Structure formats: C-alpha cells, structure tokens
C-alpha cells in the first residue's frame, strides 16, 4: 500500500496540533508525512523491546503482548492494513458537522456499551477480519450502518464490505490501498450497499478472509449476487446522509447513545499492534498510518481513566478478544476528530421486504 499520511490534529503526545485551534480548524489541518525508515519494512511488527517498554511503565495503563494475529507479520505487511487516507481540506468542508443539544449531553450515562443496550442486534458484537487488505475505511462504515439498520428499523442484517470496497472505486479512494471514510458514507447515500449474503467478503476456497498471500488486490465490482436467491438491486440498503460528528467528546457520546455505533479514524503507532488489554495510550514507536474502526461505547477504568470502547476488524486473536479501549477526552491519537456516520434510510426497504416474503412464500 502507498505510504499513508498521518491523520490530522493532535496525535497522541507529540503536540502537533496548535492548542489554540478551534474544532473546525483542527478538522481541516494539513496532514504531515509518516516517519518511517525503509530499512524497517522487513522486520517483525511485534518487538520484545516494545513489550518491555510498555509493560514496565507503571503509568502506561495498558498491557502489551505478542498478539497471535500478527505473529508472522512484517512492518510492511502490518502497514498495509492501515487504509485511512486524509481527505483534502476543501472536500472535508462539504460535509456538515453534527452537534447534539446540551439537554441530551447532560443526561448521558457514565458508562455505555452498545452490545448490551441493543443486545438483539448481533452485528454490534461481531468481530471480523479484514485480511491483507487496507479496507478498514469500508469496514467501519458498513459495520456501523448494519448496526444502525437494526437499531432504527429492527433489521438484524449484515451488509457487504465487499460491495463498498470493490464498487466505490476512485470515488472512495484506492480500494485495498486505502480510502476516505466520509466518502464511503457519501457513496452509501447515493448507491447503497447490498447484504453480505449477496456479496460476501469471505471467499469460498478455504481462506477465512481475503488474502491468503501477503497482499490482496482490490476485488472486481460485479454487481451481481454471488449466491442465494437475492437480486442485486433488491438487496441495496442506503444511508440518508453522511456527516461528521463534532470533536467534543460529549457530542460523540450523544451520537452513539442516540443513533448507534459510529466510524472513527486514528493514527496507529508501532505499540498499538501489541495491545492486549487496558486503556491504550501511545507509549513508544513511530507512526505507521491511519486506521478506521467502529466505536461502540465508553466508560471509566478502575484506575480512573476515561476510555472509548471500540471493535476492531483484526480477528479475535488481536487485542482484548478483538476489542480495545483508548483514552477518552484528550483526542488520543486523533481518535475524537475524525468521527463520521449517517442514518439508515427507509429507501428500498419495501422492495427488500417484498423479496424476502417471496422467498418464504414462492407461491405468492
């Protein structure tokens, strides 16, 4: 994958963002390049020295481990997973910033976990695997929209990452070589996305996810359901809109509380590959790239650290059974400044329901 620039704003502890900048100004800051030495590309992403530095630090607040998911990954292979590209300033301003009323924000609970609040929505607690493809930008969008269809319309469905990844093309970025989360949501408004059953991300030849080899090319857009009785147009699910969420932590919490999981992007450092448990804060290692995941909750640790709860798509062999917590309220690694979402649309739902009824009652 091409070298991925760092995300905008205050990135962990390096104080890059002007502390006097407003939220709007911070959101459109230019994004400097990543500091990576080419000679590091073939070295293992997992390093005993990083484990020691994190686990021996009494103020770290989290535990590092040699995560099984990346036991054979080189630095370069890991970097390919980080597929968030920075959106140019003029394009970013095309999208509205959503804020919530104080009357809602003052009533928010101290802890929130979407898996428990909407326990009937199985998609919220699902941990997937993006394989050797920088498709995180597509996963974050599609998984959040799947959850919101269940929350708002009672549809317990899985939408297709493969559809968005392969068919959005240059409108969203470069497929497996990275994309723009907010443009993915814009595509969902205009073109929608089919179900996972119609266009699965997982292949049918024995691999558990795309990319049995060290790299994986962007799949071809076929616009035809691969299995089952589904028809491509009838399987489409749309978003009403595409918007950014204010960087204020309480606006982010209110958005999650009211409408369901959102897509967030942040800067990944070397030590993040080693995360096992606790509340992550950048301790050591260079920045590698931008990554997108799904935000599902918040809380406060036993140590008194406020955190965000997130679902990654690196399988359950990474992190805390596929999940992680990151420090909340200080824009750790830019986690609070690139929050995007959209509301599920009733468009096409009557057609979808009619098709489902026809499948169940072929004589109708």
Automatic annotation (TrEMBL):
CDD domains: Peptidase_C1A_CathepsinB (cd02620). SMART domains: Pept_C1. Residues 108-343 form the Peptidase C1A papain C-terminal domain. One of its GO terms (biological process) is proteolysis. InterPro entries: Papain-like_cys_pep_sf, Pept_cys_AS, Pept_his_AS, Peptidase_C1A, Peptidase_C1A_C, Propeptide_C1A. GO terms for molecular function: cysteine-type endopeptidase activity. It holds the Pfam family Peptidase_C1. It comes from the Eukaryota. Keywords: Disulfide bond, Glycoprotein, Hydrolase, Protease, Signal, Thiol protease. Belongs to the peptidase C1 family. This is Peptidase C1A papain C-terminal domain-containing protein. It comes from Spirodela intermedia.
């Amino acid at each position: 994958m091409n070298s991925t620039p760092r995300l905008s704003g205050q990135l962990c502890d390096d104080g890059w963002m002007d502390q006097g900048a407003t939220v709007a100004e911070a959101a459109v800051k230019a994004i400097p390049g990543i500091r990576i030495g080419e000679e590091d590309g073939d070295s293992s992403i997992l390093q005993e020295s990083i484990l020691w530095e994190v686990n021996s630090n009494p103020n770290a607040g989290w535990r590092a481990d040699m995560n099984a998911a990346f036991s054979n990954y080189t630095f370069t292979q890991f970097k390919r997973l980080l597929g968030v590209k920075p959106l140019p300033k003029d394009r970013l301003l095309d999208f509205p910033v959503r804020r919530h009323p104080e009357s809602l924000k003052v009533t928010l609970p101290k802890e929130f976990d979407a898996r428990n609040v909407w326990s009937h929505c199985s998609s919220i607690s699902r941990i997937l695997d993006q394989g050797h493809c920088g498709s995180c930008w597509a996963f974050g969008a599609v998984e959040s929209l799947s959850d919101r269809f269940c929350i708002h319309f009672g549809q317990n469905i899985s939408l297709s990452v493969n559809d968005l990844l392969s068919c959005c093309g240059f409108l969203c970025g470069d497929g497996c070589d990275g994309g723009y989360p907010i443009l993915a949501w814009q595509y969902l408004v205009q073109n929608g996305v089919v179900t996972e059953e119609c266009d699965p991300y997982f292949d049918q030849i024995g691999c558990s996810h795309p990319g049995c080899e060290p790299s994986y090319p962007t799949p071809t857009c076929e616009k035809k359901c691969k299995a089952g009785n589904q028809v491509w147009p009838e399987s489409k699910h749309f978003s009403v809109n595409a918007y950014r969420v204010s960087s204020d932590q309480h606006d982010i919490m209110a958005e999650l509380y009211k409408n369901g999981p959102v897509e967030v992007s942040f800067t990944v450092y070397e030590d993040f590959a080693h995360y096992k448990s606790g509340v992550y804060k950048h301790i050591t290692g260079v920045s590698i790239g931008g990554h997108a995941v799904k935000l599902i909750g918040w809380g406060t640790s036993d140590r008194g650290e406020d955190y965000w709860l997130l679902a990654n798509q690196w399988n359950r062999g990474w992190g805390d059974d596929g999940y992680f917590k990151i420090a909340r309220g200080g824009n750790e690694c830019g986690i609070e400044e690139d929050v995007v979402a959209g509301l599920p649309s009733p468009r096409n739902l009557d057609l979808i329901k009619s098709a489902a009824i026809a499948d169940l009652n072929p004589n109708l």
